[in-house]
Write a structure and sequence with these properties.
2 domains; two-stranded antiparallel ribbon; 252 residues; mainly alpha; single chain
Length: 252
């Protein structure tokens, strides 16, 4: 019973985070018009040609699932257990971990994604989450937050206006350097402690492959807008896709 209550507590927290994230992305998607859109360079009033269709579907479904998870967690006593947990002075370390996780997610959503190349921003954040929260050492947590929050703060401070989000690469470079540096520190500390696990070895591959696959499917599969198409890495991928790869398969 105690294990089930603990599981519902984690479900309650995860549901709150997912609801906040999906509401944010739905709000951002609302800036894409459903009507008077352009498809293949032609003006169209058909809603099914809108670039907002797939994001609305994905994040709308995720919002429904998140609310369902929240209801299940509340009925299972997750909210009540979480409130008791937060008031327990002996468990401050777990509360700090939650706050640090919130800082990483806020840095990713509010600072990195709109301004920094999507692959770099996502790879940096995935590495921080795996290193900081899978191995659970306080030093890992603090360093993962710093490596993520500082590039996000740089991009957010220098490029507050929307027109500047895709016009510079210096924030991409700084985020990329932070990503490489964090990966190096992660392996150096693990090797020094004799704790180089298979999860840690796979972290760089996952951090590169997951956002690369996601952005490729969104941009070239579903033909959807992706954040910061002129980013340091994605701009090169898009260029070579249309100039080199696509003509090759079309026999041009």
């Amino acid at each position: 019973m105690a294990d089930k209550t603990k599981l519902r507590t984690y479900d309650f927290r995860a549901a709150l985070c997912l609801i906040a994230a999906t509401v944010f992305f739905l709000w951002e998607t609302s800036s894409i018009p459903f009507f008077n859109t352009r498809s293949a360079g032609v003006d169209s009033a058909d809603w099914y040609n809108s670039a907002a269709l797939i994001p609305y579907g994905i994040f709308g479904a995720l919002l429904v699932l998140s609310i369902s998870l929240l209801v299940i967690a509340i009925r299972g006593g997750g909210a009540r257990a979480d409130l008791a947990f937060l008031t327990d002075q002996a468990k401050r370390a777990e509360v700090i971990r939650i706050i640090l996780l919130g800082i990483i997610l806020l840095s990713y959503i509010g600072g990195l994604v709109p301004r920094v190349d999507f692959i770099i921003a996502s790879g940096l954040t995935l590495t921080a989450l795996i290193w900081g929260f899978h191995f659970k050492e306080r030093r890992n947590l603090v360093l993962s937050v710093l490596f993520t929050a500082l590039p996000a703060l740089y991009a957010f401070t220098l490029y507050t206006d929307r027109s500047e989000w895709s016009s510079h690469w210096d924030d991409d470079v700084i985020a990329l350097v932070a990503w490489v540096a964090m990966t190096g520190v992660m392996f150096w500390t693990a090797k020094r402690q004799g704790n180089l696990t298979n999860v840690m070895k796979a972290t760089p591959l996952m951090a590169v492959f997951v956002p690369l696959l996601l952005v490729a499917v969104m941009a070239f599969g579903f033909r959807q807008n992706v954040p910061n198409r002129t980013g340091l890495i994605f701009s090169q991928i898009e260029y070579h896709y249309y100039v080199t790869i696509r003509p090759m398969f079309q026999g041009e």
